[in-house]
Specification:
Blueprint (H helix, E strand, L loop, with lengths): L1 H9 L11 H9 L3 H18 L6 H15 L41 H6 L20 H4 L3 H10 L69 H4 L7 E2 L2 E8 L7 E7 L7 E2 L1 H6 L7 E7 L2 E7 L1 E2 L2 E4 L6 E3 L3 E3 L13 H5 L20 E5 L11 E3 L7 E5 L2 E7 L17 E2 L5 E2 L20 H11 L24 H13 L1 E2 L5 E3 L14 H17 L1 H16 L3 E3 L14 E6 L2 E9 L24 H10 L15 E3 L8 E5 L8 E6 L12
Parallel strand pairs: 3-11, 4-10, 18-22
Antiparallel strand pairs: 1-14, 2-3, 2-8, 4-11, 5-6, 7-10, 8-9, 12-13, 13-14, 15-16, 17-18, 19-24, 20-21, 23-24
InterPro entries: DNA/RNA_pol_sf
């Protein structure tokens, strides 16, 4: 925790701010003893009220844990009681009130005996008393029972008497570290503490305890309801799940029995991983997209082909298409139609014997979609009154669809509600809009020019200062970025010196800063870089060929020329060369003129104006892509080379290269006639 706090304070992990929320520290709070959880709830609530914040920060929680740890490890306050309480004799209970549940009819197929059911219960994940997803040691209903009854329950389910968390070992072999939060004993946990349970707090219990012992939620018992639904308190529903035989084509002796879901909303047939293991299918996994109500999900899975699906009566056999591996197939066995569920409805009584009994050894392994269209065709249908279930005869057998609970006594215990809010701007959202939302719509009016205001003021002849009324006027362009002083200077230079020559080529100057530093003669730097480039090209023949080809094309197109001699002490600049490859164009090199290479503390880009950013914004480009159905992109080859440099500025673009583009010849001076890729103002 100290490391987390230090990392959070450093600030290089902004995601740790999640620890300042209730959900962020909940996994840590869950690991604390129950009494410390209650104490933190009281301490945190008080801190929240006193400081007027939504939740205490992580540093407050860390200080609380350190204080409690220091208090509980202080040897000065460790007390041992010397008075031994007299043992209380346990009187045998002659009469115990045991709740009795009477079920008139039980139709759920349970082939396992009681010992087998109890052996599969994990008391650390599911309470064996209430069959709820909470640990037995945290079950309040179990804690409120007498000690002897608690021991009988543990013995009945073969649970460890020491930790109450496993059925794999006995108490004498248990190595789990336990502590009773009520007496600090290391021999039993709080759930097995003798005596009555501690008084509960008035705060609502956490969700993991389930609230199963509440007496206010007593369910009304109807004898007819147990005929179909069994012991549960939830309704029984059936869907299109049918028992079939599946085997590889030509190997009927390898057939396996399984349940298949018939789903006409799926365009492909799916199979669980257990299906592939059952037939020992090996192969590579292929990606595919799974589209559900939750959206699109990228999934990978194996594929299986060449299988035959057969009805139970062996009267129909159909070839299956290629099956995709998917473990998201629903696996709710309570929705499998059974003859008992159909026999208790008058209109379905005659087809009850045509539905096979529930096969406890067959798992739901297949989902057959529209690519096996014949299995979805209805040959006969039996309807009933109102909302009663109905039956359909398919090529693979009969299925029952609907709520088969008698008299509609049971209702679903869980409700899934998907609610969507529509915001003021028309956008959908899962978050509830603020009730205090205020929408302000302002109508902007253009501000007249200041010269017009001056003329109006002078014409009025009034002494009242009305010019100040226009200083803070709003315009529709207020949200746009205003050009800087350098940007306006750049535009002035281009407006005055940018022109079209006799060859219909656009000519522009180099936008120098004013004032600027005089550039030194850096010919020695360019020469050293050229020698380094020569050694590099000598080691890479392929790159050398690409480099010479680029220079040959540049010279042939007239983008560069042989530089004339310089006058005495004339200002100039030499550009070093280097080559780069595009990741998607490994056979095409681009020669870059390094305008950023410094010499004596200055480079060419240091004395040039960058110019305004006139490129299209990323948001604007994306909006254009969304506007129409088809988008087209294009690229202009040698875009910067289409603009000619003013002749008086070409000496600032000089470079050294070999005569006639032959590296065996002498080195001469060239200069660029066009704007180059490495200059900072070129994009503008």
């Amino acid at each position: 925790m100290l490391e987390l706090e230090a990392a959070k304070l450093d600030g290089y992990l902004p995601g740790l701010s999640y620890l300042d929320t209730s959900r962020g520290i909940q996994p840590i709070v869950d690991k604390l003893p129950y009494n410390l959880q209650e104490k933190w709830m009281t301490y945190g609530s008080k801190y929240k009220r006193d400081h007027g914040i939504s939740f205490p920060p992580f540093t407050v929680f860390a200080n609380f844990i350190r204080t409690e740890a220091k208090t509980r490890t202080d040897p000065s306050f460790t007390f041992h009681s010397s008075n031994q309480l007299p043992e209380r004799k346990q009187m045998p209970e002659r009469f115990s009130k045991v709740p009795i549940s009477v079920h008139k009819t039980q139709v759920q197929d349970k082939t396992e005996n009681k010992e087998k059911i109890t052996s599969t219960v994990n008391p650390n994940k599911q309470c064996p008393i209430h069959n709820k997803p909470h640990p037995l040691k945290r079950c309040r209903g179990f804690r409120e029972k007498p000690l002897e009854e608690r021991k009988q329950i543990i013995k009945r389910f073969n649970i460890c008497f020491r930790c109450c968390s496993s059925t794999d070992h006995l108490a004498k072999n248990c190595t789990t570290d336990i502590t009773c939060t009520e007496c600090d004993s290391n021999n039993h946990i709080s759930a097995l503490h003798p005596g009555p349970a501690p008084q509960e707090s008035k705060t609502p219990p956490p969700p993991q305890h389930g609230g199963e012992n509440s007496k206010a939620d007593v369910q009304e018992v109807t004898s007819r309801c147990t005929e179909v639904c069994g012991e549960g308190v939830s309704a029984r529903e059936c869907s299109k799940i049918i028992l079939v035989n599946v085997y590889p084509a030509g190997h009927k002796e390898q057939r396996k029995r399984m349940y298949a879901i018939l789903d006409e909303q799926s365009n492909r047939s799916l199979a669980r991983s257990q299906f592939f293991e059952l037939f020992r299918i090996q192969g590579a996994s292929y990606p595919y997209t799974l589209k559900t109500c939750a959206g699109l999900t990228g999934v990978t899975g194996r594929r299986a082909g060449g299988f035959i699906v057969e009805s139970i009566n062996e009267q129909l056999s159909l070839p299956l298409p290629t099956l995709l591996e998917c473990n998201d197939i629903p696996n709710n066995r309570s929705e499998i139609p059974t003859p008992q569920a159909a026999s208790h409805h008058t209109h379905l009584h005659r087809i009850a014997d045509k539905i096979p009994p529930l096969d406890s050894d067959a798992d739901i392994l297949l989902l057959l979609g529209r690519d096996v269209l014949r299995v979805h065709k209805v040959r006969e249908q039996v309807n009933g009154p109102g909302d009663s279930p109905f039956a359909q005869k398919l090529d693979l057998g009969w299925v029952v669809v609907g709520d088969v609970c008698l008299d509609g006594v049971h209702r679903p215990t869980q409700v899934s509600s998907y609610k969507t809010f529509v915001l003021e701007n028309g956008r959908a959202s899962h978050l509830q809009p603020c009730n205090s939302q205020i929408t302000v719509k302002e109508t902007f009016t253009e501000t007249p020019e200041l010269s017009h205001s001056l003329r109006s003021f002078q014409a009025s002849g009034c002494n009242v200062d009305r010019i100040g009324q226009q200083v803070f006027a709003r315009t529709p362009d207020d949200h746009k970025s205003a050009p800087s002083v350098e940007d306006m200077r750049f535009l002035q230079i281009m407006d005055s010196e940018f022109y079209q020559d006799s060859d219909n080529s656009w000519v522009g100057p180099l936008p120098f800063r004013s004032p600027r530093q005089r550039l030194p003669n850096n010919r020695q730097l360019a020469y050293d870089r050229l020698m380094s480039l020569r050694r590099s090209l000598g080691k890479r023949p392929e790159m050398k060929a690409h480099f010479l080809e680029f220079m040959e094309n540049m010279l042939a197109r007239g983008h560069a020329e042989v530089a004339p001699s310089l006058a005495h002490n004339q200002e100039c600049w030499y550009l070093p060369l280097f080559g780069v490859y595009h990741p998607k164009k490994p056979t095409k090199i681009r020669v870059v003129f390094d305008s950023s290479a410094p010499y004596e503390g200055v480079s060419l880009n240091d004395v040039l104006l960058t110019g305004p950013d006139l490129n299209n914004s990323l948001v604007g480009v994306l909006m254009r892509f969304r506007k129409e159905q088809v988008a087209v992109t294009a690229d202009i080859e040698h875009m910067f080379h289409c603009l000619v440099v003013k002749e008086s500025h070409r000496n600032f673009l000089r470079f050294l290269w070999y005569k006639d583009n032959d590296m065996s010849c002498e080195i001469i001076e060239y200069r660029m006639r066009v704007h180059i890729f490495g200059n900072s103002p070129s994009p503008s």
